[in-house]
Amino acid sequence: MASANASANLKPMTVFTHSSGPNPKKVLLVLEALKIPYKTEDKEFGDGPNGVKNAEFLKLNPNGRVPALIDPNQDNIVVWESGAILMYLEKFYDQGNTIGSTDLKKQIEINAWLFFQVSGLGPAQGQVNWFTHFHDSKNEDALKRYRNETDRCYQVLDKQIGSQKYICGDKFTLADAAFYPWVATADFAKISRPSNVQRWFEEVSKLDFVKKVYGQ
C-alpha cells in the first residue's frame, strides 16, 4: 500500500459514528489534526436499517460497533476499531509527524498509551457508564469494581502527565486523541478527574481542531 499525503487533494473518508459515543471522536480528532477531509455517517444501535447490527454494516465491521472508516484514497479499504484506525491514519497520512514521532522510543511510548486507553480506561469507564445509567437493575458490586478500576486508570494517567503539557511530552499525539473523548465524558460517569488530568484536559480543549470536533 502506498503512503498518501494529507492534503486537500484527498477524497473525503467516510467515518461511521454515533452521536453519543466517545470512540468515534478519537478518529475525528486525528482527521482534523491532520487536515484530512472526511464525512460522517451516524449509525444507530440495534439491527434496524441504519443499525450497527444490520447485515450490511456487519460486512464493514463484523463486531457491529462504531467507529469504522472507509478510505477511498486506498482502494476503499475498511478499517474498524478506534485504535486500529488511529494507527492507520498515523502510518499513512502523517508524513510530517504531526501526531507521531520519528524517534522509535517515543513512538513506542505513544502506542503504549494508546493501547492502555483502548484496553484499560475505555472499557472500565464504559462499564461505569452502563451500570450507572443503563443497567435495568442496580448492581452495586459491579459498579464498585468498575469505578475502582476507572479511578486506578485515571491515577496512572495522572502520574504519566505529571508536569508535561501532553501525555507523551510537548505535543498532541495519538495518545491524547485516544484519551480526550473519554476524559471529556468523566462527568457523565461521575468520575473526578485528578489534578494533572484536569489541567491536561483544559489545555487540549483549547486546541482549534478539538473545538471544531466538539462544535465549539
UniProtKB/TrEMBL annotation:
Pfam families: GST_C_2, GST_N. This is Glutathione-s-transferase theta. Belongs to the GST superfamily. Residues 11-97 form the GST N-terminal domain. PANTHER family: GLUTATHIONE S-TRANSFERASE II, GLUTATHIONE S-TRANSFERASE-RELATED. It comes from Taphrina deformans (strain PYCC 5710 / ATCC 11124 / CBS 356.35 / IMI 108563 / JCM 9778 / NBRC 8474). Residues 103-216 form the GST C-terminal domain.
